[in-house]
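User: Can you predict the 3D structure for this chain?
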Amino acid sequence: MEIILSIVIIVAILSWIYRFSIGRHKADDSSFSQAGVFVDYNAKTLTYKGRAFPVSKVRSVRTEWQGRKNSNRQSASVVIEINDMSQPRVQVKFSGGGSEGSANKFQTRLILALEHAGCTF
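Assistant: Here is the predicted structure, written as structure tokens:
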């Protein structure tokens, strides 16, 4: 019984750390990063999951919702459409009760970072 309780506590702590870290952003004069997305202003690139794209190929950034509003089961995805045949769409997922605010703030910051890197949509 103690082992099961320990596993439950560890999983709860890890999920809390993951949820907290996805909302953190870092920005300075040369780059922006949040939720696994990295925008390099000098190189004019957007990188996600090891794939780098020129910001000039970004076509749009929008938010999609899944689930019911005002529910803990609600989730949101910020979708980045890219002019790239091999990966035309990048999807960054947010889940939980605070996903609406997190996704909206991320989308706003990402658009500002892309524009700072030279993206004109």
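The chain has one domain: 2-116. The chain has a mean pLDDT of 87.
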